[in-house]
Amino acid sequence: MADLLSTGRTPRARLRELIGGSAPLVAPGAYDSLSARLVEQAGFDAVYMTGFGTTASLIGRPDVGLLTGTEMVDNARRIAAAVDVPVIADADTGYGNAINVVRTVQLYEQAGVAAIQLEDQVMPKKCGHMSGKLLVGADEMAGKIRAAVEARRDPDLLVIARTDAVAVTGTDDAIARARAFAEAGADVLFVEAPTSEADIERVAGELRGVAPLVFNWAEGGKTPPLSLERITELGFSLVIYPIGTLLAATAGIRSLLATLGRDGVPTAALDAVPTFGEFTDLIGLPEVQRLEQRFSGA
Question: Which of these, 86, 102, 226, 291, could form a disulfide with 151 (CB 3.0-4.6 Å)?
Fold first, then answer.
């Protein structure tokens, strides 16, 4: 996990290596710094900052474009500072036109993320597995991708281009858009929410080799839940599990509160949660204590 003192690691270069590996990179979702640290402690090599989870955790509302770019960047900065592994950050539509995208990319880069994900929806956008999405023109989105690529100061920062066209204009258009986004300079392609294994196979078959591909294993979403073995066979380079941590946290909190409401005390639920000491250890208290001893002169 991230130490309070710098380790000198380069997460962006590491992410490029991982994306180019023989097996898909698995990136569980994180919605705050604590969930990101837990992902890292579980042994995963990357963290995916979910916009769905960020919206739910910050304002308790659905992912329908309610958060500003500033709020998303602030969350990305806190998450990137909490872990040493690369952070892949949802940046929605870039929060405006191509000029807005330039600033968005620069702010996310300053926040320390290793990759930024941009999508071709009209703002305000919706979660990729909700209905009622609208798209910007393919040419407009290609321009935004070109702007994103030119705006980055670190060439190792990955630009992920997502299209939501499957649910709006169909799989043919989604594949055509993805190709156009690759031509515009996108490093990684993300065709969101195919609804059948046949469509997933087609996306992989036609785009594999154009650029590395993302598979969104959206928990409870519209895409069939393929096995990791099958995803690997199809040639995807990155698999994200965006909201499992959020759903698990929600279930755990509900369970504890139900016990508290029933008994008046949480005692019966405490066997299922970390002890106070275990929790302070996992959030880094021992490191703080070592630094106190090192710098206090004691």
Answer: 102
